[in-house]
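Sample 1 of the test manifest.
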Amino acid sequence: MSGRRSSGVTLPPFQTLLDEHADTVLRYLRAAVGTNEAEDCFQETFLSALRAYPKLRDASNLRGWLLTIAHRKALDAHRARGRRPVPVEQVAEVAVTDDRRAEPALWRAVRRLPAKQRSAVFLRFAADLDYVQIGQAIGCSDAAARQNVRAGLAQIRKGWAR
Amino acid sequence: MTDRIATLIARAEQEGLLDVAYATVDSPVGMLTLAATPKGLVRVSYSDTDRVLEELAGEISPRVLAAPARLDGVRRELDEYFSGRRRDFDVAIDWSLVHTPFRRAVLERTARIPYGQTATYRDMAEAAGNRAAVRAAGTALGANPIPVVVPCHRVLRSGGDMGQYAGGVERKRYLLELEQARPWTRVSDTRVHPPLRG
């Protein structure tokens, strides 16, 4: 007996997704929203994934699927932060925790990029997705995804050289 | 388990997203994989855990997570059973993996064979309403998704021969010896079975 379902898609036990991809999702989220907010986003990502999982039609790229969900949760977190009267970035700089300080300054620079570039750079370098998968995640072609990564990197280099 | 994962499991349970919780447990008959739905214990298996989880994902729901807390009760009872301190299991059963009424009837009857006693495949066929279906009763018992707790090891061939066991005859013998099993004699049944033979 294998995990065959009436839809014809074989879905592995969800535990497999946790075992194999939790670290990747967490790494991506820490880069994308910072160490503190990553925890909430992690919970939201996997709960959303659990909710949707039984109806998933294509199990060929579960890692990409999870990272796409994580990406949406990261966007929500960015939007929520934008609505807050006091920018979290500045507060965090004051109330520094050790792990926050240890986080690469580079990721903080990436978080200041425009939304699409920021998402594309994180999905490429923190989550290691290819351009086709990045395109699927942020809703553009793979060529546009590549362009967003390139533009984002150029922007960061400019800031870094300053 | 990290706090992060523990939190996730707790929230999944709260939100009704934990369709199948599983845990593994060491026992004198080897490692057992246990699984429970919100309705009750659905699987006890001697097989390789990964295979069991795939089967559960396909047959019940792919929302299968390592969540030992749901299995705490049955783990404790199994512990007590294997150390000779428990004769009956008091856990809710989910029969979802039993697919026909006949099989269900055979297994429900099997669940009522008292500790330390044995019955025959024919007894079980008869109890399920079809005296002639001895072979089918054997198949139902062989496919018992909840061995040990539903004590199919207490069912022997007429004549006292051990018969088959999904976990292997050695395990069947171990469980019967643990219970110091003797043939089951019902008040209305004076048949006497010969002593156990391998």
